[in-house]
Design brief:
Blueprint (H helix, E strand, L loop, with lengths): L7 H21 L3 E6 L4 E4 L1 H7 L3 H4 L10 H4 L8 H4 L3 E8 L5 E13 L2 E10 L1 H5 L1
Antiparallel strand pairs: 1-2, 1-5, 3-4, 4-5
Protein name: PAS domain-containing protein
InterPro entries: Biofilm_reg_signaling, PAS, PAS-like_dom_sf
Pfam families: PAS_9
Length: 134
């Protein structure tokens, strides 16, 4: 088995390349992709996600999942999503709400991950309005 030593510069370059690949994949996705705290506060969002909900990227970061659903549904959201609910992933159909108050049907997939020592939710949201029309 051959073991090679990589320089600090090589490791940094590989890390930067890996990060860039991730960013490109998320940014070109046609579905909304969110990175959230375990409580549902949005930390990051791709352009498709901001557009889907009628916000700019700057506006949507910092909102919570409760801001993106009708008020009557927001009241039923649990305060904290437990690890048990999302460790293996969760897939649900829900009504979502745009910035202007328009509601629309969505499919939502969530997965709990750890970034460093912090639990985070990766959330994929697909607008299924066209599918519901047919």
């Amino acid at each position: 088995m051959k073991v090679t030593k990589k320089s600090k510069e090589q490791l940094i370059a590989e890390l930067v390349e890996s990060e860039e690949k991730y960013r490109i994949q998320v940014e070109i996705a046609t579905d909304a992709v969110f990175l959230e705290t375990i409580e549902g506060r949005i930390l990051e969002c791709n352009t498709a996600g901001a557009k889907m909900f009628g916000y700019t990227n700057e506006e949507i970061v910092g909102l919570t999942i409760a801001d993106l659903v009708p008020e009557e549904f927001a009241k039923t959201l649990p305060k904290i999503i437990t690890e048990k609910d999302t460790t293996h992933g969760k897939f649900v159909s829900r009504i979502s709400k745009k910035k202007d108050g328009t509601i629309f049907p969505t499919e939502i997939a969530t997965k709990l991950i750890n970034i460093g020592d912090k639990p985070r939710l990766v959330v994929y949201i697909r607008d299924i309005t066209e599918r519901k029309r047919t």
